[in-house]
Amino acid sequence: MPIYKVWRESRPRFLFVLAALLLVTAASTFYNSTTESVVLETKDFHQAGSRTFQGPLFLFWGFAAMFLGLGGLLRERAVGTVDYTLSLPVSRTRWFLYRAINGALQALAVAIVPALAVPLFASLFGSDYPIGEAAIHGLRLGIGGMLFYSIGLLTSSLFAGEFTSAGLGIALVFVVNNSTRIFQTLKPLNLQDAIAPTQMMDTSPYLARGAMPWTGICVSFALSVVFASLAWKLHKLRDF
Amino acid sequence: MILRLNPSSGVPVYLQIVEQIKHSIEIGALEEGDQLPGIRPLAEDLVVSPNTVVKAYNELERDGVIRLRHGAGAYVSESNSPNSRRCRIKDASILVKNVVEKLRDMGLSDEQSRRLFEAELMEEVSCR
Amino acid sequence: MNTVVETTDLTKRFGENTALNGLTMTVPQGGIVGFLGRNGSGKSTTIKILLDVIRRTSGEALLLGEPTGSVAVRRRIGFLGEDKRLYPYMTVEEIIEFTRPFFSTWRKETESRLLRDFELPRNCKVSSLSKGMRTKLGLLLNLCRHAEFLILDEPSEGLDPVVAEQMLQSLVQQAADGTTIFFSSHQISEVEQIADHIIVIEKGRVILQGPLDHVQQKFRRINLVFDDPPPAEAFRVDGVDHVSLQGRTISILASRNIDDIAALGPLLAAKSVEVQPVGLKELFLEKVRER
Questions:
Q1: Do A87 and C79 touch (CB under 8 A)?
Q2: Interchain proximity A87–C55, CB inside 8 Å
Q3: pLDDT tens string B102-112
Q4: Looking at the predicted complex, does its ipTM rise above 0.90?
C-alpha cells in the first residue's frame, strides 16, 4: 500500500522530532518549575507550563513541523528510487496526497503529544498545569502552525537536496514568525497568536483568557493550503 | 543437444541453430524419430530469444529436416521423404554455386568449368 | 501486428541540450528487443519518457496503445532501472509485500521460486544488499507480476558474469511466457545473443531498427584485394554504405546489391573477393561513425 511506504520513509524523521520535542518540553518545564528566581518572582506554578508554551515549544515546533514537511519524490530522485516509485501504477497526485496527509497528521501529533506532556512534566517537577489548557494550546499550535509544515512541503518540492530545502524552510519560518513584527499591518491578523498564545495570556495565573484568535488561525491555515497546493502543482509538472 | 553458437559472428542465431541441427543429423548425433527439445527449454538452455528458436524450427520443418507435431514436440523426420529430397537438392545447389564462384575467382571461364564438370561426371559413369 | 511502444517524432529538450531529436520507433509485441546506443544518445531519456518520469517536449509516445502517463497501463508493465536502487529502509520481505498488491497478475509461486533460486534473504534490509542481490530483487519484483511488457535500463551493468547469465536466463523465461522484453544495453554481444529485434539510437534519433536477423542478413562486408587498388570513388555505387582502403584491400560495407558490388571485383581485376557477414559491434561502430 502506498501509504505504508510513505509512513516508513517518514518514520525516522517523525520519531526523532517527537523525541526532541519531548526533551525540550521536559527541560523547559523543569527549568520553569525549579528555578528559584522564576518561582519566587511570580509565586505561580502555572507559569512553568505557560512559559514553555510561549517559548521553546513554539519555537522548536515551528522548525519541527517544517522538517516533517521535507522528503518526498524529489528527495527520492537524489536517493535514486524515484524511477521505481513513479513506474508503479500510482499517480503523482496520489503520492503527494499521501505524503501531505501523513506529514500533517505527524505535525499535529508532534504538537499535541508534547503539549499534553507539559502537565505531566510539570507535576513531576513540583508544579502543576491544567490538562485542558495544555490540550487547547497543543491543538492551536498544531492547526495554526500547519503553515510551517506546508513551508516544508513547498521547499522540498523545489529542491532535492535535504540541506537546501531545510535551509530555505528555516529562513521562511523565521520570516513568517516575525511577519507581524516586520509588517505592522499584519498585526490584526495575530498570526503569532494563532500559534503561540502570547496575547491570550493573563499575567497571572498565566492561563488563557479571552477569545481564541480565530482570524489568525484561519489565515494561517489558509496560507498553508496555498503553499501545499503550490507544492502539489510543482510535483505534477516537473521532470524527475 | 550440444550446440555451439557464436552470436557475434554476424550470422543470424536462428541460422546457426538450423545448421548445427542439420549437422548433428548428418553425423548421426541425431537420428530419425529422435525428439528435439521443446522451444522453451531450448531457448532457456541456449539463453536466446524463444522467437529465435521458433524461427529455426520453422525453417527446419520447411526444409523437411524435422516434423513439428502440434503440442507433441519436434521430431527428426525420415531421410527419404520427398521434403528431405528437396532439401538435399537445395543444399547441393548451394554447393555448386560456391564451387562455381571459386572457379571463377581462380580465373577459369565458364566453358572451362563446364568441361571440367562433364569430364568428372563422365569418368564416374565410365567407372561404373 | 501489435506494438507495445510507438513513438512518433519524439523530442525532448533540456534547456539548450536536445536529448531526443525526432525519435520515431516501434517496439513489436512478443520477443526481446535490444535498445543500443552510446552514452548520452538518449536511451535513458526515452525510457523515462515512456514511464512518465520526465515529460516530452513534443511528438507522441504510446505505451501499450495509451499515451504515456496512463496509470492503468503501469499496472501491466514492469521496470528495472539502471541503478537498481530500491527503498533502503525496507527489508526484502517488506518491499515484496509492498509491491505485490499493485499487480493483479502477481503469482505467488513465482515469488517463492525466485526467492529460493535467487537466494534472497527475507529479513535483510535493502540497504545492506550488494548490487547483484539488488538486481535479483528488482528482477523478482518485476518477474512475479508477469507483466505484458518489461523495460530494463542496462540490466547487466555492474553484475558479475554469473549473475548476468542468471538475469538473461530469467528474461528468456519471461519472454517464453509471453512478456515483451525491452532492454537498453552497452553490451553488444549480449544483445546479439538474446535479442530478436534491435533499435539503435544515436544523438536522439533512430539510425537502425528491425528484426536482428534481417539486419544481419542485409549487411555484408566485401573485401577486394588488388595489386593496384582503384580509388575508393570507383566503389561508391548503390547499396554501398562505407568504403575504406587498407593497404591493398578495398573494404566495403554494403546493405544492398551485394552480388553486383562483389562483381566489381573481377571487373576491376581484383586478386581476391571475399564476402563476409558483419557482426553487430562492427555495424554499430560503422553506423555511429557515419554521423
A1: yes
A2: no
A3: 999 898 888 88
A4: no
- Looking at per-residue pLDDT, the higher value among B21 and B128 belongs to B21
Q: What is the pTM of this model?
A: 0.83
**What integer is the mean pLDDT of B11-40?**
90
CB of C221 within 8 A of CB of C275?
yes
From the list A11, A83, A91, the residue facing C51 with the nearest CB is: A83
Cell 489568525 -> residue: A216
Cβ contact (<8 Å) for C32 and B51? yes
- Which has the closest alpha carbon to C100: C143, C61, C67? C143
Q: For residue B93, give its domain range.
A: 82-127
CB-based contact (8 Å) between B10 and chain C?
A: yes
**Total tally of structural domains belonging to chain B:** 2
Residues B13 and B69 placed together within one structural domain of the fold: yes
Q: Please, which chains are in contact with A (at least 3 CB pairs closer than 8 A)?
A: C
- Grid-cell match 554455386, residue found: B97
Q: What is the mean pLDDT of each run of 10 residues along chain A (240 residues)?
A: 91 91 82 61 54 65 85 84 94 94 91 83 73 76 80 88 84 73 54 52 48 70 89 90
Q: Which grid cell is B72?
A: 507433441
How crowded is the C-beta side of A126, counted as CA atoms within 13 Å? 10
Same-domain status, B66 and B101: no
CB contact under 8 A, A81 and C99: no
Contact C213 B7 (CB under 8 A): no
Q: Are residues C257 and C138 in the same domain?
A: no
* B and A touch per CB criterion (3+ pairs under 8 A): no
**Could you say which of C195, C211, C227 is where a domain stops?**
C211
User: Inter-chain contact C51–A86, Cβ cutoff 8 Å?
Assistant: yes
- Please check whether residue C241 is in contact with residue C253, taking contact to mean a CB–CB distance below 8 angstroms: yes
Mutate to test the interface with C, among A3, A84, A240 (most CBs of C within 10 A): A84
- If asked whether residues B37 and B94 sit together in one domain, one would say no
Contact C240, C254 (CB under 8 A): yes
Q: C97 is written with which cell numbers?
A: 509485500
Does residue C124 sit in the same domain as residue C13?
A: yes
Let me know whether C64 and C181 are in one domain: yes
Closest listed residue to residue A87, CA positions, set C34, C141, C108? C141
Nearest CB partner across the interface for C83, out of A12, A80, A91: A80
Q: Domain range for residue A221?
A: 2-237
User: Is the Cβ–Cβ distance between B58 and B80 less than 8 Å?
Assistant: no
Residue B100 sits at the chain C interface (C-beta within 8 Å): no
* Closest chain A residue to C102, measured at CA: A89
**Are C51 and A87 within 8 A, CB to CB?**
yes
